[in-house]
């Protein structure tokens, strides 16, 4: 089923999102929208709440306040069927989190079979299609340990794509990779963006943010300090905190 039929409502809408761990307020009222087909990169220092924000979108963390609306569904509503929402949201983590005892192809079919109840043959076809898309069409029988980190991360992307998501969340997908393996993963992500995938990407790759993001969001201390097109936020930041951060990473 194509889910690209829901009109112009944002795919993600955060209204005053607050997240506390005990007494510590990690997200302090985040307002953010991601439109269909948009690529939004979130940048900011370590500990600023970027991962927590991403994890609140698919309720890996339970928000303490505010609203999280995904594809028109308020996921903070206790009656919300979060599994139904998650089926349309792919997530790729810094650590690839592949199942080590399953082959590459099985890694890409297991959620389809068990969560989305897709038949075996169709699941394999889809998996094969997406493995081809990430340049690993011939590695379906390999086990994760036989692949490089960059290849494993591309499998993780193919696995997420095999669920035919409407939205992809990336949390520093290249941070754990050796420098020479980063490019292939970014290339796959760039291809996805070109095909119109809606993407929310936490990254320290400023060149990627510059070239691929429609919008860059700079977070610090649990708030959005500045957001706008990369030509503004990355190349001509208005806020001192953004400038300080960029001076350190660029
Ligand atoms: P970032 O991804 O920007 O580095 P995080 O969202 O991981 O930041 O973390 C933001 C803050 O929340 C940090 O101070 C971190 O220690 C804290 N934090 C994150 N997860 C938890 C948790 N499960 N329990 C307690 N504190 C947490
Ligand atoms: Mg993080």
Automatic annotation (TrEMBL):
<keyword id="KW-0029">Amino-acid transport</keyword>
<dbReference type="GO" id="GO:0005524">
    <property type="term" value="F:ATP binding"/>
</dbReference>
<dbReference type="InterPro" id="IPR003593">
    <property type="entry name" value="AAA+_ATPase"/>
</dbReference>
<keyword id="KW-0813">Transport</keyword>
<dbReference type="InterPro" id="IPR030679">
    <property type="entry name" value="ABC_ATPase_HisP-typ"/>
</dbReference>
<feature type="domain" description="ABC transporter">
    <location>
        <begin position="12"/>
        <end position="246"/>
    </location>
</feature>
<dbReference type="InterPro" id="IPR017871">
    <property type="entry name" value="ABC_transporter-like_CS"/>
</dbReference>
<comment type="similarity">
    <text>Belongs to the ABC transporter superfamily.</text>
</comment>
<protein>
    <submittedName>
        <fullName>Amino acid ABC transporter ATP-binding protein</fullName>
    </submittedName>
</protein>
<dbReference type="InterPro" id="IPR003439">
    <property type="entry name" value="ABC_transporter-like_ATP-bd"/>
</dbReference>
<dbReference type="Pfam" id="PF00005">
    <property type="entry name" value="ABC_tran"/>
</dbReference>
<dbReference type="InterPro" id="IPR050086">
    <property type="entry name" value="MetN_ABC_transporter-like"/>
</dbReference>
<dbReference type="InterPro" id="IPR027417">
    <property type="entry name" value="P-loop_NTPase"/>
</dbReference>
<keyword id="KW-1003">Cell membrane</keyword>
<keyword id="KW-0547">Nucleotide-binding</keyword>
<keyword id="KW-0472">Membrane</keyword>
<keyword id="KW-0067">ATP-binding</keyword>
């Amino acid at each position: 089923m194509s889910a690209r039929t829901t009109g112009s409502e944002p795919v993600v809408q955060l209204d005053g999102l607050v997240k506390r761990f005990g007494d510590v307020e990690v997200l302090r009222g985040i307002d953010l929208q991601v439109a269909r087909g948009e690529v939004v990169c979130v940048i900011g220092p370590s500990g600023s709440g970027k991962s927590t924000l991403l994890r609140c979108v698919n309720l890996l963390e339970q928000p303490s306040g505010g609203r999280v609306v995904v594809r028109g569904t308020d996921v903070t509503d206790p009656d919300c069927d979060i599994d139904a929402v998650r089926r349309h949201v792919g997530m790729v983590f810094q650590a690839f989190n592949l199942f080590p005892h399953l082959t590459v192809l099985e890694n890409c079919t297991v959620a389809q079979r068990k969560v989305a109840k897709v038949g075996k043959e169709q699941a394999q076809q889809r998996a094969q299609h997406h493995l081809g898309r990430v340049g690993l069409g011939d590695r379906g029988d390999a086990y994760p340990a036989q692949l490089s980190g960059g290849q494993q991360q591309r499998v993780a992307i193919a696995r997420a794509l095999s669920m035919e998501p409407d939205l992809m969340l990336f949390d520093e997908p290249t941070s754990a990779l050796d420098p020479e393996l980063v490019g292939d993963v970014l290339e796959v992500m760039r291809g996805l963006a070109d095909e119109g995938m809606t993407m929310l990407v936490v990254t320290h790759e400023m060149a990627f943010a510059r070239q691929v993001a429609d919008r860059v969001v700079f977070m610090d201390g649990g708030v959005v300090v500045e957001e706008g097109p990369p030509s503004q936020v990355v190349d001509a930041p208005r806020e001192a905190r953004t400038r300080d951060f960029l001076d350190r990473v660029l």
